[in-house]
Amino acid sequence: MNRNVKRIAINLAIFSALLMTSCSAKYTSYSNEIFIGKSLFQEKEYEKAKQYFIQASKDQYDSVSLALLGSSYYKTGDIDNAERTLLEAEKIDKNSEFLLRIIGYKSLVLFQRNKPEGFDVLRQYVKYVKQRQLPMEMHDFERMIEKNKVDLAVLDAKIEEQTNWYEDEMKKLLNNEPGYLTEKYGHQ
Questions:
Q1: Number of compact structural domains in the chain
Q2: What DSSP letter does each residue of 146-179 carry, written as one string?
């Protein structure tokens, strides 16, 4: 019996090691896909970025991969998939560090579909920025809301710029690197 217990313990240890290696390899793959996809996205290579985000979402179905994938769908003109993916990202994690992206691109999708709810989501975006006291200019957003008229090109460019900045700052904060949010909230 003692021999069987040892054999079971060894088999369990081997299984655990294989499982952890598999999970680690999958996470490494996911991280690389997110990193490469974000680099391509920032270079406006949206179609290529989308392929990396699709694979990342297969490796790890989370709000981060879906927020980035939804943004890529939007940028490549696939509004149906953009809306579906962004709604799923929002449903998975309403506190994601990518929530600003989710809200921003959700408003763009709604405006692209000529839905007045886009203004409600844009108000949510402005509120999110103000509550966190982020150093982002909201004047153009507020003017669009006030006039009930959106300039989609301006909104798209500003949301892209602001979400990229915020995500870079969140990454610095989480890694205890110097940056605006790290200085504001201190080192973790």
A1: 1
A2: HHT---HHHHHHHHHHHHHHHHHHHHHHHTT-SS
pLDDT, tens digit (0-9, with 9 covering 90-100), for 68-78: 999 999 999 99
User: How many CB atoms are located within 10 Å of the residue 36 CB?
Assistant: 17
Q: Which residue has the tokens 């991969």?
A: 65
pLDDT confidence tier of residue 29, bands split at 50, 70 and 90: confident
Average pLDDT of every residue of the chain: 88
Q: What are the start-end ranges of the H helices in 76-148? A: 79-92, 99-112, 117-131, 139-147
**Amino acid (1-letter code) at residue 111:** F
What range does the domain containing 159 cover?
2-185
Place of tokens 């952890």: 20
Give the chain's length.
Answer: 188
Tokens standing for 174?
Answer: 């989480």
Q: Which two tokens stand for residue 73?
A: 């769908």
In 3D space, the residue among 96, 89, 24 whose CA is nearest the CA of residue 53 turns out to be 89
Q: Which CATH number does the domain housing residue 104 bear? A: 1.25.40.10
Of the chain, the end-to-end C-alpha distance in Å amounts to: 50
pLDDT at 10: 55
Cα–Cα distance measured from residue 182 to residue 172, given in angstroms and rounded to the nearest whole number: 7
Both structure tokens of 141: 């957003």
- The tokens of 12 are what? 């369990």
